[in-house]
Each structure stands twice: as C-alpha cells, then as structure tokens.
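Narrative summary of target 7.
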Amino acid sequence: MSQTENGFSRWIKFVELSTKLISVTPFLLGVAFSLYMLGSLQAGPTIILFIAVVLWDMTVTMINNFIDKRREGGTPHFTTGVSLALIFGTGGIAMVLGLWLTVLCGLPVLIAGVICFGIGILYSFGPIAISRTPYGEIASGLTMGFFILFLTVFVNAPDRAAQYVNIQFDGSMLQISMHWLNLLYLTLLALPSILCTSNIMLANNICDMERDAPNKRYTLPYYIGRENALKLFQGSVILSYIAIVVVVILGLVHPISLAALLTAPLAWKNVRAFVANPVKSETFILSVKIYFILLFGFVITMFVGVILKSVL
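Modeled conformation, tokenized:
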C-alpha cells in the first residue's frame, strides 16, 4: 500500500497536478463567454475538450520534467520506461480526443490542436528548445492563454465556421476564411489570460538569469535586461486590467465584470513584492498568485454576468 501511495505521490509531482488550474482558467473564460455572448453551450464537445486540455497539459508537463531531469542529472520521478509509458499513454488519449473533437467540430480544431501539441513538445525538446530562447513567454501565453479559450468558444459557437474560422479542401485547393473582427474580440478577451500566463514564465526566467546564461539558456530577460523585464512584468498586469475595461466597453462581457478591477490593489501588492525581490525560492510564487487573483476575479464576474443576463 505504501508503494502505491508513493507512486501516486510521485505521479502528482511528475504531472505537477497543482498547476493544472492554469490550463483550466482560460477554459472557464471561454465557457463564460459562450454562455453570455453566444447563448449556448454544447455539453458533449465541451466535456471532451476539457478532458483533452487537462491531459494535454499533463503530457507537456511530464515531457518537460522528463527532459529536465535527464539534462540536469536529477533524480527522475520514474524509470525511463514508466515515464515514457505515462507520457505516451496520456498524450495518446489527448490526441484521440482531439481527433474526435475534429470530427465533431471541424478542421480548425485540428489545426489549433496541432499548434498546441507542437509548441508543447518543442518547448523543452529538440536542439533548440523554446524554453531556452526569448520566445518562451510568447509560446506559453498563446498556447495556454489564447488557444484554449479559442477552442472552448469555437466548439460552442452555433455557426462556428461563419463566426470564427472555416477551413475546407476544394480539390487541390486549401481554402481558409476567417472572421477577423470576431477573432480580434476573442484576442482582447483572452489578453489577460495571455499576459498573466506569459508573466509566470517571465518571472521564472527573471529569477533564473544568473544560472541560465552559463547553461546556454538565453531567455527574454537575458536580451532585454533585468530592469526592462521587471517593467514588462508590471506592464503586463496593468494591460490585463485595461483589457478587462475594454471588453466591457465593447459589450463582450457584462458590466459587472468591472468589479474584477477590485482585485487590482491585491494583485499590485504582489507585483511590487516580486519586483522588489525577484528570488525563485522566495517570490516566484507571487506570479502565480497574481495570475489567480486577476483571472479568477475576471472569471467569477463573468459568470455573475451570465446569471444577471438570464434573470434581468
């Protein structure tokens, strides 16, 4: 029994189960938006997507941990055989679910899924892993912050091809059409999620600057400098709150979402604490706290908006 518990405990650390809320949050934003703006929620595709997103996030985390342990010579969570079995098993199920969702909802799901899987794998794997370049913040922000929200809204849209993206094969021609204005609206809605996700990676890279360069990890703070990186960290939080105001003005969410601005003082307190002392063991966790303070304030007010719209 103790071995089973020990194995389960190691699996929790291998998939970093406590961090999965970061991938669930943009999903919740997409659900709230679908209920409020589109007035619909397709239960089957939504559940399939949710499971696929969580399994995909677990797979990417396991790949990252597996490669990092081998590269740094740390103690692995499991043997190589068990680790690969878990990675391919979880990843395989996520892929099957993604293909099922493609059959139900169309090729844009497949394209978005391939992009997310590709970035997730290349993030730590390959001769030049994305995490070792100045593009890690952009990659994590787009995959976790935008694409999950996009997919959630897309699978729930009544006329998804006309409302967002349509991809068709016509003989030897591949035809792609996009409703650029609706996609712009989704980008604005996703902006707080994109920026807060990127900020977690940025905070990690700021804290690791001294040891990254000797290990040939040339991340964004290496190129722009610590001070500019800290200014970018602060600016991203400010821009996130501005984006909430903008989407309210555009009518994409209920005006009650302005109440999310009430979380700004607490978020900013954590921003100042991190900027004053960006040390991995002491203050990195503050970037995660900022993420949840800001985004869960937004998510909660969005769902309140859905309720208010339905009763008023």
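The longest strand covers residues 165-170.
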